[in-house]
Amino acid sequence: MALKGDLPPIKCAMETFVQSVVSGVLTGSLYAMIGVGLTIVFGVMRIINMAHGDMVMLGMYGAFWAHVAWKMDPFLSIILWVPAGFVGGLIIYRFLLRKIVPAGELNTLLYTAGLSLFVANVALLVWTGDYRTIKLPYAIMPLRPLGIAVPIPLAIAFGMAILVTCGLYWFLVHTDTGRAIRATSQEPEAAALMGISVGRISMITFGLGTALACGAGVLLAPSLYLYPTVGEILVAKCFVIVVLGGLGSVPGAIAGGLLLGLAESLGAVYVSVPYKDAIGFVMFLLVLLFRPAGLFGEGKS
Amino acid sequence: MKPVMVAVALAVMAAAPWIVTDPFFVHLMIIVLMWTVLGAAWNILGGFAGQVSFGHSAFLGAGAYTTMILYLTLGISPWYGIVLGGLVAALIALPIGLICFRLRGPYFALSTLAVAEIIRLVALNWESLTAGPVGLLITTLPAVSLGGRAIDWESKTPFYYIIAVIALGALGMTSLLARSRLGAYLLAIREDIDSAEAIGINTVQARVSALALSAFLAGVGGGFYAMYLRYVDPDAVFCIPLSVEMVFIPVVGGLTTVVGPFIGAVFLVSLAETFRSHFQVGHLIFYGAFMMVAIRYMPEGIWGRLLLMFESRRG
Fold it and tell me: Cα–Cα distance between A33 and B133 in angstroms, integer?
């Protein structure tokens, strides 16, 4: 992920290492949030959602326009766009996806690829392909605890991503709906026999996945350049994350997100800057080939 | 199809540049035929063998760059370069196939996406070969004379005939494949790969052959693309949207049919190019919208649906 602005040059080896670990964890937390959204949707419905990155893109533009039009702090606008994403997800599932899901994984893959292209091109038409940025007064100088540069927007995003992800985790573990989601993910037929309405749970899960994507987009908006096709590269990263952690596994997606963030930032320092994006894809292929259930063996394939 | 219909279609194709002289429409016909080739390429793997690839831009790009580099550095005429580009693409396809065909269904699709992205990054960074993000540009095409007259490369008509021949070749290959033993193997693999394996089909060999054939056609299409636009850069030819367009054209037109990619290209490319000439951006809206409509309401595609209607009328 290309962050705006350059971090200052770093002198000693230890500092370089700590600095790249810190930035890896910061971006990794946001990757994790996007990955969790994709993985719960896959777990419950077997949808590989190619349009997930475009939902992140919509969240980014949401934050941008809230900032421009209503002078709202982009981070504050998450309270608008997460519920909006949830409702949007419900609508997309109800009116677009519901009839497609029984047709199998490949058909939903192609269908969501169509949805992705459609959404990205409507965005291109409406907002043009220009690169946009959000300028925040408090984002100019990075924080420097112990001499390590921490960009403030990324630090806030990190904190909020942790809150949201933990909140979701709590929801999945402790609420009835959350338990129903996990049950459906494990064994849809048994869940249905236990009286869980799989259709309703699918709809809620898709709403949650979309809400997470929009929320992550809002949090990313101050740290990234905005353009309508940003979703393409994000969705490719998403697949890397969820496959690393095992498709369908929530803890796996969190670990996968952190792992990808670290691999990219350490790879940029110790392997090569131009190929840092390739590291994720190489890991992705290796995991798919040799550990298809994910690095932690939790996913299903 | 009946030979009469084929003859009529050929006559119309040959006469088209005389009937249509508006440069925009000639350009449109060229682009439609180019996408017919690319769609036909994807159709062999995605339609017949049922292996959905989201990384076919890798083969298009390989063909485009091969043709371009051979002409710029060794002076090899694009006439041969386009074919060599196809061969290089097929060669690249072999290791990709051996890796990715260990995976099935959506996992295969995701792995091809990853491979194509890796290849894009290599093309972007291998500057001594590809000139990196700057791209490669050719200003003049080699002089060729046909029947004593020099071909005018500034006019679009010669490009039309070249791509028309390539497109007919691609559809002819599909038609041959559909009747061949390999074609039957591929259909068996598409329907049920385990059963295909059980009755003794070497599914890896069959799928790799389909991929190589598919990559060859995509590479040839890429070589033409490079010569027609006279410019390539990694983000233009190795990008995800090109791969996605290659998927959508045969799916909307009619998977596993010979004419489907042509119908899909006529339909989607004309809409998109007309839209692009008015709004500049967002022309892929139709691709996305019709893809969703096709998957939901007619997974057999436009041509597939027409064939079904003919059959039901006859029966």
Answer: 32
Per the CB < 8 Å rule, is A113 touching B54?
A: yes
Are A289 and B281 inside 8 Å of each other by CB? no
Is the whole-model pTM more than 0.95? no
| Sequence spans of domains, chain B | 24-140+152-241
8 Å CB contact of B109 and A281: no
Residues B121/B58, Cβ–Cβ less than 8 Å: no
Query: Between chains, do B247 and A243 touch, taking CB under 8 Å as contact?
Result: no
CB contact (8 A) between residue A277 and residue B109: no
Whether residue A301 has pLDDT greater than 50: no
The rounded distance, in Å, linking the Cα atoms of B225 and B258 is 22
Closest CA of chain A from B159, distance in Å: 29
Per-residue pLDDT reduced to its tens digit, A235-272: 888 889 998 888 888 999 999 999 999 999 998 888 88
Residues from chain A that touch B122, judged by Cβ atoms under 8 A, are 278
What's the gap in Å between the CA of B218 and the closest CA on chain A?
20
Query: Which residues 245-274 of B have a C-beta within 8 angstroms of A?
Result: 247-248, 251
- Distance, in Å, from the CA atom of A41 to the CA atom of A204, rounded to the nearest integer, reads 10
**Rg, C-alpha atoms of chain B:** 19
For A123-168, the pLDDT digits (tens) are 999 998 888 888 887 777 777 777 778 888 888 999 999 999 999 9
Give which of A162, A216, A29 is closest to A21, Cα–Cα. Answer: A29
- The ipTM (two decimal places) reads 0.89
Number of H-type helices and E-type strands within chain B: 15, 4
- Nearest-Cα distance to chain A for B13, in Å, is 31
Residue linked to tokens 């636009």: B229
B159 touches chain A (CB under 8 A): no
Report chain A's C-alpha Rg in angstroms. Answer: 19
B49/A contact by beta carbon, under 8 A: no
CB proximity A109 to B under 8 Å: yes
> Alpha-carbon distance A111 to A98, whole Å?
12
* CB-based contact, A113 to chain B, within 8 Å: yes
B115 close to A (CB below 8 A): yes
Helix H, strand E, coil C: the string for A216-262 is: HHHHHHHHCCECCCHHHHHHHHHHHHHHHHCCCCHHHHHHHHHHHHH
Q: Are A97 and A206 in contact (CB under 8 A)?
A: yes
Helix, strand, coil distribution of chain B in percent, nearest 5: 75, 5, 20
What's phi and psi for B137, nearest 5 deg? -130, 135
Least confident of A140-154, B201-215, B222-236, B250-264: A140-154
- Facing residue for A281 by CB, picked from B117, B296, B299: B117
